[in-house]
Structures are given as C-alpha cells and as structure tokens.
Amino acid sequence: MRWLIIFLLFTNNLLGQFTYSGYLYNANGSGANNVAVKLYRRTNSTISGFTSQNNYNGHSYYRSTGTANWTTARSNCIAMGGHLVTVTSSGENSFLFNLWPSGWIGLTDEVTEGTWKWVTGETFSYTNWNSGEPNNSGNEDYIQFVGSGKWNDLNNSSSLAYVIEFDYIVTTSSWTLYKTIYTNSSGYYSISETYDPSKEYYIEISAPTRVQAYTTSDIQAVSNIILGKTTRNGLSFYRFDVNDDGVISIADKYYVAARKAGIFSKWRTAPDVRIFTTAQYNSIVASTTNVRSSYPGISTHTTGTLTSGGTLNLYIIAPGYSGSVTY
C-alpha cells in the first residue's frame, strides 16, 4: 500500500515528466495549424541543484547542494529518474564517503522495524553500522553517513544533504534533432517526455510554407483598409503593404489579386512569412504607423535550453491574407 500511495502521488503531480507547450497564432489571432516545432535534445552531465558528477562501477553519483528530510530526498530522486544512493559494498561505501562524508543514503526500515531495505529493492547484505547502531532512538527509520563512513539511523525530522544515484554513466552529447511536433487546429503544441535530469532540450520553429490560396476576401480586406472601412494600424502594413512601399494603396490590391490569379508567384520585395514574439506582435498592433523597420520579424525562432513547465507563444504573419492561413 505504501508504494501504491507513492505511485499515485507521483502520477497525480506529473513528477517524472518534462513538459513544455505553447501556441502559434496567425496574424488575426487564430491558431496556425500544422506548423512544425522541432525538438532538439542532448545529454549533459551537469545537473542543477547537485554537485558535479562522479562515477563508480558503471553508475553516476551526484550530491545535492540543498538539504531535505529523508522521504523528500527519496521522492526528489525518483522524480529525477534516479534513486537515493544505495551502498552494497565496502568499495562503494569508501568511494562515497571520500567524496561526500555525510548525508542520507537509501536505506530504511520504515515498513517493518528492524527489517532494513534498500529503496531499489536490491539485496541488503553489506552493512557498515557505527558502534551501537542502529538503536531506533526516537523511532529512527532512516540512515545517514556519520564519521569514518559509518552508518547511523535517524528520524525523518532532520534535513540533510543526500546523494542521487543513476544506474548508468551520465554522458554529454551533441545537440541532435530528437522529434518534430506539429501544431493542431488551435495552433497548440505540447511536449511531454519522461524526466531525466541529464537531458536538455531546445526548440526551433521556422517560418512555414503556405499552402492556402488567396481569395476574394483577401482582396476585399485590402480595399477596406484603403477605403477606411477597417481601422488601419501597424499590423495592416505587415498584412497588406505587399509591394513594400510604405503605404497601403490600390497597387497592393492589384498585387493580391495577381497572386490570386497566379500571375505572381511571390511579392516583389516583402518577405513571405515572418515570425514574431507576443511582445513584438502586441507592439505592432498597438502602433498606428508602419513599424516594420523596428520589428522586421525572423524566419526561424530558436529558444535557449528549455525549462520544464515553460511555454512559448509566437505569431506568424503571412502577407496578403485577411484571415487564417493553412500551412
């Protein structure tokens, strides 16, 4: 029952998952559908919140830079894809003590008093008890390193550093394309990966290729701007100044009509598709003039290393369109 409760807490709180999500929007605020979000990944042996990596017998070990009680330390290690360190030989005990001479290890008798078990379930045979230990003074169900690498039982009220162990060597690799996710009809994308503290991610989004044809509604939208039926703002220039002369005029209407008729395959000078951050988009919409020189947009947006639980929303503007754009 104890392990069932831990598992339910683990799943209900989404521990052990790396998540990231966001929306890609068209110029009119609708979702940009079927846009590729490329997820890159690498392995990095440096883990935030822990000291540098040390290896022994095919395993990697890190010591926490903060402290926690034993049960929290155990949960933290599980959530990171490892486990609170187990010590199954004198060689491993000496290795750990020489690096980190104090802190929690993954041994407990919390289920049955006097029956000691490693958190991994592996065989409990090697011991290195301090003199007079374990003595269960004050209901002590958890083990710490003390002087000379000896072990002492302790209750859960103490907050100590601890060691996380991975049952493999954590290595550093080059960034590679890991997978490609596509936005849905709402422009939404979502990343969910089993959490591994040695894995780092970033995403790359490139301006997509349009597959939607121009329509009479697009031509009419230019006319409405020219005639003053639609309020002109900074965004209007990105969408309808398609000949890139700094004004929205009948010439732009003819350009859109020519694109619709297949006479032109591209705009004369205006970029075809550009990406903008939410802050840039809001500044463009708030402006009453042409601000393309201040916010030219980019063809590819690349993030820094992602933080789990983060979000990224972007706007994609394709000139000549009055509404949603299909990619």
Rg (CA only): 29 Å
Number of strands: 17
Number of helices: 7
Poorly predicted regions: 1-15
Structural class: alpha+beta
Globular, elongated, flat, extended or rod-shaped: what is the shape? rod-shaped
The helix-strand sequence is HEEEEHEHEEEEEEEEHHHEHEEE
List descriptors.
327 residues, alpha+beta, 5-stranded mixed beta sheet, 4-stranded antiparallel beta sheet, rod-shaped, disordered N terminus
Model description:
With 327 residues, the protein is an alpha+beta fold. The chain contains seven helices and 17 strands. The strands form four sheets. Strands 1, 12, 14, 16 and 17 form a five-stranded mixed β-sheet that branches. Helix 4 (216-227) runs antiparallel to helix 6. The longest helix is centred in the last third of the chain and has 12 residues, at 216-227. The radius of gyration is 29 Å and the shape is rod-shaped. The two termini are 51 Å apart.
In short:
The protein is of the alpha+beta class and 327 residues long.
What's the helix and strand layout?
Layout: H1 2-12, E1 17-26, E2 36-43, E3 54-56, E4 59-63, H2 70-79, E5 83-84, H3 90-99, E6 103-108, E7 117-118, E8 142-145, E9 151-154, E10 163-166, E11 176-182, E12 188-194, E13 199-206, H4 216-227, H5 234-240, H6 250-261, E14 274-277, H7 278-286, E15 300-302, E16 310-311, E17 314-317
Parallel strand pairs: 1-16, 1-17
Antiparallel strand pairs: 1-12, 2-11, 2-13, 3-4, 4-10, 5-10, 6-7, 6-8, 8-9, 13-15, 14-17
